[in-house]
Recover the amino acids of this structure.
């Protein structure tokens, strides 16, 4: 009864709040529809080996990354090339099928975004849409995992600084829920002093 009374007394505020939430959600989906993420970006090989190139691909995919992440990814791409290795994925298909093949490779790798380059022309960016549809092409694809999909955490707390006997141990597993690396998970802790098990919900960012 108290709940019903509260709703009646604050009906305008509740309706206004719900309208604001619905409006906000609608605006988000409209923006997503008008500005779709582009998980695969075509760049020159030289551009892909730079932090700026990686940041551009991440921006196209709407995946926020730090300067350090961009530098690390660029360094890895440059190392693959300089060491004479081949990337894990090579797109070998026709020009018309290339976009679908690139997206499939990116999704199969579970990558946050991918960069595709033309190995035979390191200074050029290939645009498959401008080639005859049946043109055979071979492209290098670098799939970038900016954030792990799943995080596992094991925790241990001693009884005291000078007593390493366990007071509490725990384990948790969390799944990435946003593009910028926020995680939601569950965990279990066991306290040896209280002989009690605690189940917890975790949010990590």
């Amino acid at each position: 009864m108290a709940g019903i009374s509260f709703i009646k007394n604050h009906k305008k505020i509740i309706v206004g709040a719900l309208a604001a939430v619905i409006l906000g959600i609608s605006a988000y989906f409209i923006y997503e529809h008008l500005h779709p993420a582009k998980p695969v970006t075509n760049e020159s090989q030289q551009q892909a080996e730079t932090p700026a190139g990686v940041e551009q691909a991440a921006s196209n995919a709407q995946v926020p990354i730090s300067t350090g992440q961009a530098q690390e990814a660029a360094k890895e791409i440059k190392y693959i090339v300089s060491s004479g290795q081949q990337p894990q994925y090579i797109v070998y298909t026709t020009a018309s099928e290339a976009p679908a093949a690139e997206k499939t490779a990116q999704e199969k790798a579970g990558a946050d975004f991918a960069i595709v380059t033309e190995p035979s022309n390191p200074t050029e960016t290939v645009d498959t849409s401008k080639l005859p549809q049946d043109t055979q092409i071979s492209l290098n694809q670098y799939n970038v995992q900016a954030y792990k999909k799943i995080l596992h955490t094991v925790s241990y707390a001693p009884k005291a600084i000078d007593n390493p006997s366990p007071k509490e141990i725990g384990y948790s597993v969390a799944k990435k829920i946003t593009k910028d690396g926020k995680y939601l998970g569950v965990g279990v802790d066991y306290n040896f002093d209280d002989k009690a098990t605690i189940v917890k919900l975790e949010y990590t960012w």
User: Anything to note?
Assistant: The chain has three domains: 2-34, 40-144, 150-204. Residues 63 and 179 are 5 Å apart (CA to CA). Strands lie at 40-42, 89-94, 113-117, 136-144, 150-160, 163-176, 183-191, 196-204. Helices lie at 2-9, 11-34, 45-48, 51-60, 67-82, 98-109.
